[in-house]
């Protein structure tokens, strides 16, 4: 598949990494893109920058879990700066799952996650709740071997329907795209298709429920002290 399709795949994955669904850095099944490749290596193999990124994502995970699982109605809203880097060899493995080749060097994606604590608590306590999240943006710097780095930005406004404490349906609602013309064309095609057919809904629902359950249990000792 084309170079530009591989960029579209990466940015979609990065958008998931920016939100509550995958802030947990979990390993994924073979049938889904693995967004946590950089976190499965021993500390000795991580650069200081990669360690700092991982610790930042974990801190965000604890804050989100404390809101979803807390029984107290008070607490500050969540604001996290999420940063995630992929090395070239990781990207080859990541996009290779979708039979796409990666033609560039490493990539560094970032986003600011803003979530209202009261909304996350209501999602767990109300029989039914449609949770419309504030607009978010993800920005990725793509390094290239013989050319200047390229920056890609994409906006999205997720909406999730909860019933009895579980996500039942979800929409990513892709918005504005900023990218070089050819890459932007591929991204527009991919995001427009998802906005119309909601292709990624099942993946997002599964990841949210996995995060609220198993992944929050993994850091229970840390978020439980916040109650």
Layout of strands and helices, then pairs:
Elements: H1 3-18, H2 48-69, E1 78-86, H3 88-96, E2 107-115, H4 117-125, E3 128-132, E4 136-142, E5 150-156, E6 159-163, E7 166-171, E8 174-178, H5 181-197, H6 201-218, H7 220-223
Antiparallel strand pairs: 1-2, 2-4, 3-6, 4-5, 5-8, 6-7
Helix pairs in contact: 1-5, 2-4
Which terms summarize this structure?
single chain, 3-stranded antiparallel sheet, 7 helices, 42% helix, disordered N terminus
Task: Please provide a written account of the structure.
By secondary structure, the protein is of the alpha+beta class. The chain has one domain (3-221). Helices cover 42% and strands 23% of the residues. It contains seven helices and eight strands. The chain has helices spanning 3-18, 48-69, 88-96, 117-125, 181-197, 201-218, 220-223, and strands at 78-86, 107-115, 128-132, 136-142, 150-156, 159-163, 166-171, 174-178. Strands 1-2-4-5-8 form a five-stranded antiparallel sheet. Helix 1 (3-18) crosses helix 5 (181-197) and helix 2 crosses helix 4. The longest helix is centred in the first third of the chain and has 22 residues, at 48-69. It is globular and about 55 Å long. The N and C termini lie far apart (49 Å).
